[in-house]
Every structure is written in structure tokens, then in C-alpha cells.
Amino acid sequence: MITIEDIKNNEEIKELILSAQRQLDALGYTEHSIRHISIVSERAAKVLEVLGYPQERIELARIAGYLHDIGNGVNRVDHAHTGAILAYQLLKEMGMDVKSRTEIMMAIGNHDEQTGTAVSDISAALILADKSDVHRDRVSNPNMSTFDKHDQVNYAVTNADFQILKEERKVVLSLTIDTEISPVLDYFEIFMERTMMSKYAAKYLGIWFELVINGTKLL
């Protein structure tokens, strides 16, 4: 069985991750490299683990989370689709069975809010994990005077707590936003599609998605 350690130690995958970030840096996007994919990988796995899914599904979610953004090395546009195809081929070459690599391909291909939705337990966990990573650490632009709205909103988030509560059957994203940097309304202006995608992903898993900002429950 291919594990997350096999994925992390694969030199081709390492280069694709680095190349993806170089392209996003050139385009002025937020961080999508090792920090982000590691967080998404572990959160996706944690969602299924807490909800009692089999270990095999948990590991596939962990791998999907780690690979989900490699398509950015091709182009930011349609990165979910190109990343899904890249991941499928890489996993095939590594010897992963067809059923497992198809599950990962499907999850990666559906993680972007423009074209995707939850279509499996793995894809739902990936969506919840990916959309939860809003934080100032993702802002690579060192000059606040040149921030676009995405940079400004991400930089305003000083804390992001992601919890899966099994007994309450819900996942909670609790954000602390410095409103002197960005008003809460700007978060919704930019991330409303992602928020709704997370809501439907949680519904797919039979749980609720709850959004709390500065101590106030908003969803």
C-alpha cells in the first residue's frame, strides 16, 4: 500500500510542489506549498478519523490533501483538473491500485469551488480541510501597501481553529479576524463560495459546518 511517507519522499512530487509554488509566487498568489498542503493533508485525514472511517479511507484522504495543489505547476486555471490527472499518473507509476488512485483523482478534481463539489467521503474531507486554511501565514507578499483583497483578508486572520466534534456531528471553523486590517464583510465577499462548498461537503458526510468569526456564530 502506498503511504503518505512514500508520497513525501518521491522526488518527482517534491519538484512538482516546488514548481507550483514558483508559478504562484510569480502570479502573486497566496502560499500553496508545503505548509498549506501539510495542513490540508492532516485535516482531511482527521475529519475521516474522528468520524470513524476505515484506516484505508483516512490514508487516501491524507494523500489527496498532500497532492491536491500540484496542478498549479501547470497553470492556476483548471489546476484541480490538471492536478487530478497528474496525481493519477504519478500514483499509477508508484504502484497504487486503480481503485485507490481513482478515488484520489476524483477528490482532487473536485476540490476547487469554481467547478467541484463533494462527490465522496474523501473529496468532502479534502474540501473541508482545504477551505479551512485561511491565515496570515499564507500571505507571501511582504508589502502590505500592495496587498490585494485576498492578501488583506488572509493577513487579517490571526488564528484559525479547525475542530471536528464527533458527538455534536459538526465541524467548526473558528477564525479570529483583525478588523483593523480587514472587515468581516470582506471575508464573506471573497470566501462565500468556499463557505457554501464547505457546508455542502459537511452535509455529504452527514454533519454540520459551523463558521465562527471573532466569537460570533455566523453559519
| Shape assignment | globular
Enumerate the strands of the largest sheet in spatial order, edge to edge or round the barrel.
1-2-3-4
Low confidence ranges: none
Instruction: From the alpha carbons, calculate the radius of gyration and give it in angstroms.
Output: 17 Å
End-to-end gap? 39 Å
Return the structural class.
alpha+beta
Please provide a written account of the structure.
The chain is α+β, with helices and mostly antiparallel strands. It has a single domain, classed as Hypothetical protein af1432, CATH 1.10.3210. The chain is 55% helix and 11% strand. It contains 9 helices and 4 strands. The protein has helices spanning 4-8, 11-27, 34-50, 55-67, 79-94, 98-109, 121-132, 149-156, 184-204; strands spanning 157-165, 170-177, 208-213, 216-217. Strands 1-2-3-4 form a 4-stranded mixed β-sheet. A hairpin with a 4-residue loop joins strand 1 (157-165) and strand 2 (170-177). Helix 4 (55-67) packs across helix 6 (98-109). The longest helix is centred in the last third of the chain and has 21 residues, at 184-204. The N and C termini lie far apart (39 Å). The relative contact order is 0.12. The mean pLDDT is 94.
